[in-house]
Write a structure and sequence with these properties.
Layout lengths: L2 H21 L6 E17 L6 E16 L2 E14 L4 E14 L4 E16 L4 E3 L2 E3 L1 E16 L4 E9 L1 E3 L7 E2 L2 E12 L9
Antiparallel strand pairs: 1-2, 1-12, 2-3, 3-4, 4-5, 5-8, 6-7, 8-9, 8-10, 9-12, 10-11
């Protein structure tokens, strides 16, 4: 699926949830609660540049304002920084965007579409393409993804997250690469309203 198509689908899903929430305010099944979810973890990234790999530290927050039935839209901010760069390239990014999650008992599957800035440092003296040796480049990053949180307690969960990204770079013939990142980490939930709803 193209990145733009996935972004459109996620935007429509969030719009539906917001409309449902507004309509349902007159019923006892709808609630409004503010939650902040902070997460961090280790990320294995296949950089899509000569089979290079990075081992990153990823951290971020989700701000969730609305809840209706089993769905919860949120806004996510995250950053990834390489702790181990490999020998080809070092990729770091700062991303933000919409996220929609569902509560299924202890499981919280979700999808997101993040947009932000990325920087590539080409290692070992730079990366040669044609007559040019590239040292660094910056680009807009598109990052659709999916993930799953497993709730261990009221405030603590473990996370697995996958992102399929699009980076532009002048160092390859196609002009772009598609890094793939898998994160394993932990999530801590702060519920400002001290409410529980469907064990979210």
């Amino acid at each position: 699926m193209k990145a733009k198509q996935m972004m459109t689908i996620l935007t429509l899903l969030m719009a539906v949830c917001l409309i449902d929430h507004a309509i349902a305010q007159t019923t006892p099944t709808a609630t409004q609660s503010l939650q902040l979810l902070a997460f961090t973890g280790g990320t294995a990234t296949f950089t899509d540049l000569e089979r290079g790999e990075n081992l990153d530290v990823t951290a971020g927050v989700d701000v969730a304002l609305l809840t209706y039935r089993f769905a919860r839209p949120a806004f996510e901010i995250r950053g990834s920084y390489p702790a181990q760069e490999g020998t080809i390239s070092s990729q770091k990014s700062f991303l933000l965007g919409p996220k929609i999650g569902y509560s299924l008992g202890r499981l919280r599957p979700y999808a997101n579409f993040l947009i932000g800035r990325g920087a590539i440092d080409y290692l070992e003296g730079g990366y040669a393409f044609g007559d040019i040796r590239y040292i660094t480049s910056n680009t807009l990053v598109l990052s659709p993804g999916v993930g799953l949180d497993y709730r261990l307690g009221r405030n603590l969960a473990v996370k697995v997250d996958f992102q399929h990204q699009h980076w532009d770079t002048p160092a390859v013939p196609s002009g772009s690469i598609n890094p793939k990142s898998t994160t394993l980490g932990a999530v801590y939930t702060i519920d400002f309203n001290h409410r529980r709803w469907h064990d979210w």
